[in-house]
Amino acid sequence: MHRILGIDLGTTNSVTAWLSDGVPVVLPNRHGDQATPSALGVDPHGALLVGHEALNWRTAQPGSVITEAKRLIGRRWEDELVQQALQARPHDASPVRASADGSVEIRLGEHYLSPVQVSAILLRRLKQDAEAAAGVPFGRAVITVPAYFAEPQFSAVREAGRLAGFHVARIVEEPTAAAHAFGIRPDEDGTEAYATVLVFDLGGGTFDVSLLTIGPSYFLVGQLGGDNLLGGSDFDALLDDHLREQPDGRDHSGDGDASRIRAAAERAKVELSSRDVSEVTLAPLGRQGGSWSGAVRRTDFEALLNEHLGRMRETVESVLKEGDALPEDVQRVLLVGGSTRIPAVRRTLEDLFGEETVSHAVDPMTAVAHGAAVETGLLGTLACPAETCTVEGIPVTADVCPGCATPLLGTATVDCPGCHVPAPELTAACPVCATDLSGLRAARPVSTLTECPECGRDDNPASATVCLDCDATLDAGGLKCPGCGMVNAAGLTTCSFCGGDFGTALAEQVTAQHIGLELEDGTVEVIFPGGMPYPTEWHRVDDLTVPGDRGASVRFQLWEGPHLRSAQRNEFCGGFVHDRADGPRGEVPLTLQVRLDADRTIDLKYRFGTGDWHGARLRRSMASPAIGRKAAELHDRYAHFLDDWVREVTPAERDALTEVMADLAALSKGEKVGRSLDGLLDSARDTLELCARARSAYARATIAGQGGRGLLPSPLLEQLRKAAEAVMDTRKAMDADAMRTATGRAEELWTGLDPAVRTSILTIRFAEQDSYPATLRMEVLAARDALRSAVERSDQAAQDTQLVRLGRLAEQGRDQFAEVSAPAAGSVLPSKR
């Protein structure tokens, strides 16, 4: 049996749990603590610090510890929420910056890492500690996220789990997991057959409210609300600011006091949950090493919280209203998250729902992890992670997908000693920092042995489902029946022996916000309204069109959020680009079908006019839509260059340009590219510009060398010939540095020519190549013949007359070229018919 680890990946603290003998059990970390602070740091020797080790290091080296990666995961730098989160970060937080792909990077030691990579490091440590505590390998995980996370955050958490070495069997919303932990059963303590339950989840960095309906083997998430930028860390910030004003009114953000004051604020917040007064001492303080002592009263703290408490109550009331429920309709209010221990928070809920309705039955700090473990016992099937695979309902006992053979267990990973980002075992070099990993091997957990209750054999592996001697059932990975005590197989919601109800089931989820398609005018066509249950059937949209311009690709971009008049104010879900080599003129009808599956993956089916149907799975991309558009535009420029000069580019140039085009095409479609995004677009522009310059310089030097006889001195003609040969030699080798040098020399010779002579030479060549309309071509060739005759007679006045004439004809040629030039193909978005 492949055991699955339940993980509460929290903003402030993270907790792991598993089903042991059918019961959720929290797994302690290596220090014996149930919770691991979600903090990472690096000491002066480059060693990784996790949890309390990292937090203790903040005072010694402010700005070196990452504590709030979850608020930034899956987000773009320009997002309004990101900028708000950055303003609310602690004064001693680790530096952040915009990355090359438009997302966010956080500094850990000497390296800037994405929030996905930071989370992968933390998940890797949680995995190691859990395996050591349980004595079994965890190749799979159920990871929880806030209910108000959008599609990009779901995808980013899944990617972090994959990097850490897990097959992520399910991403579960935290309120849903918490309800699993409480195990509400009908007829229990007066609960009706179908109970209305409100989950109030106030964690370290996020706030969620969910309205649920729970019945026998039935679990529906009916309404969601929340705030991704409200949590216990914001309460810490209020006390932090309050304490800063006490000693001397001086700004302490730039010295070593910042971490000391922040830590004191966090301790005071915790103490004020059980005391009326918290005594605070700040020492040493300031450059002179002074100290400050004082008291913070609960009443003062609650006064600071007034605005936040009001926002929380408004969110609760909004969820009730949208769910057509009144406070008296709610039979249980489940408290989740460490910040629900604050008395003022509990009083707010008790005032609204009544003291007897607010449940304290489960530790709010571990409820989500408990629920994640319960979810592992409810999973009877897995989904294949391969993007193109359509196989569904794979048994949890399978090692690989039966359709495409993709592994359904996470890969063994090693920790990079340079940047600490996990990498698959046997990786030659770290893909992040290029550190040599060839000698590293993944450690295997020491297996815990299990005693058979039937025959007494005591050396069964903890992962075994039956005894090695008597075949008696051991732990089948499912839930323990609260009635008869039988441990069931995974995937059951009622006992297979007595039929007893477990008090929970796999939840029917709903979308938190609108999900829609971006249109050409920048608005959103809503496809899945907020609150819609998923998975969904195919939803058809008929009244769309796209321009039929030749060569224009069609972009499908989906967004999640409330802003229907401005797509890009929402969360970018991802996109897909359909390339069209040709198409009819005018407006073409577009028929689109969209489906949202149980894993929040969006599938597309579409056709243009009466043509064939096409299918696609929405490609989640960490690159911003702006980056994708720039990549698409640059890809079009590459394609035009190769089409225009197909007979002139060298094989080496074609190979180099085609390789870059592949990366640009992948990036424009939201796919992963084969190299770092850092500088990719700039490098691609430079490469195309260099090839275009070199081709032009070679052509002009060659034309001048051939067409300048009699107009240019013989030594200069020889210099032009040699310059053209030098440029061609470098193009054949695609030696960028040498190409730049040779091209520069050829351009210098060309620009040094008399402008009238340059214009005449080019105009004559265009006419000889039939590049002009017939009438203009005949005039240019007549002027050419007259110029050559004047050269043979050494008649300088006649030469000047013909050079002026050719200049005037060149102007006419430029005007006619402009009239017949074709519009460049690009990419388009659908429009409403």
Automatic annotation (TrEMBL):
SUPFAM superfamilies listed in its UniProt record: Actin-like ATPase domain, Heat shock protein 70kD (HSP70), peptide-binding domain
Record keywords, A-Z: ATP-binding, Chaperone, Nucleotide-binding, Phosphoprotein, Stress response
Keyword Chaperone: yes
Family annotation (Pfam families): HSP70
Superkingdom field: Bacteria
Similarity comment text for this entry: Belongs to the heat shock protein 70 family.
Protein known as: Actin-like ATPase involved in cell morphogenesis
The organism's taxonomic lineage, starting at the top: Bacteria, Bacillati, Actinomycetota, Actinomycetes, Kitasatosporales
